[in-house]
Amino acid sequence: MNRLVKLAEVECRGPLTKSGVQQPPIRDFMDDLTVTTTSVPWCRWILQGLEKTITWARMCFKPAKSRSLVLKRGKVTDKFRLSLDGTQIPSVTEKPIKSLGKTFDCTLKDAASVKATNRELEAWLTAVDKSGLPGKFNAWIYQHGVRPRILWPLLVYEFPITTVEGFKRRISRYLRRWLGLPRSLSSIALCGQNNKLKLPISSPNE
After folding, report:
1. Is 82 within 8 Å of 57 (Cβ atoms)?
2. What is the rounded distance in angstroms from the CA atom of residue 75 to the CA atom of residue 37?
3. What is the pLDDT of residue 122?
């Protein structure tokens, strides 16, 4: 796949960073391709080159699963549209896309995703709390079920420190209830990893 992509890179150059480093116009990961250019015509030339190369290799793209994003003076615009094999590529304004667990939309911000993660965490904790299982099983479900799900959004999105601390306080409140611990017990005693007597529980920011 890398050799096929390299054949289409000769159509134009990639964007230039502030440090003067020329980025490649095409970046690939597994079967995903990202095309980045400084103008719409250059992007169209690269797409045409990719079409020829992929057609020669007897493969095809799926425009419906692709997304286009055009920025003009720092703002998203839908004035320019891109296409593959005669089919128009939807823009992120029309259909936001999720790649590697991260959602991309026309706002180019993480605020909506942060709020969605907040709602998901509350829904997961509430579902576990209402499961009817003994408290120690609820704590086990958090450690091996809820916590791994919350770690990836914390990695790919930019969460404010106050939001992460709010997650930690909320989780600690549920854990104290499930384990029958007093509300005055500190989070260090509950999730501390350097304690002499530590519980097999980790906080979301560890």
Report:
1. no
2. 16
3. 94
- 203 touches 187 (CB < 8 A): yes
Q: State both tokens at 70.
A: 């055009």
Whether the pLDDT of residue 22 is over 80: the answer is: no
| Cβ pair 153, 113 in contact under 8 A | yes
pTM: 0.70
Cα–Cα distance for residue pair 8/54, rounded to 1 Å: 10
Residues 33 and 68: beta-carbon distance below 8 Å: no
* 182 contacts 176 by C-beta, under 8 angstroms: yes
Strands 26-29 and 32-35, by their bridges, are antiparallel
Does the pLDDT value for residue 16 go beyond 70? yes
> Is 70 exceeded by the pLDDT of residue 89?
yes
Average pLDDT of the residues of the chain: 84
SS percent in the chain: helix, strand, coil, step 5: 45, 15, 40
Those residues with Cβ within 8 angstroms of residue 146's Cβ, 6 or more apart along the chain or in another chain: 121, 124, 125, 128
Cα separation, 58 vs 8, whole angstroms: 16
Instruction: Tell me how far CA of residue 160 lies from CA of 76, 189, 203, in angstroms.
Output: 25, 24, 16
**Which of 205, 196, 194 has the alpha carbon at shortest distance from 170?**
205
Q: What is the pLDDT of residues 164-203, one digit of tens each?
A: 989 988 988 898 899 888 888 777 777 776 766 666 777 7
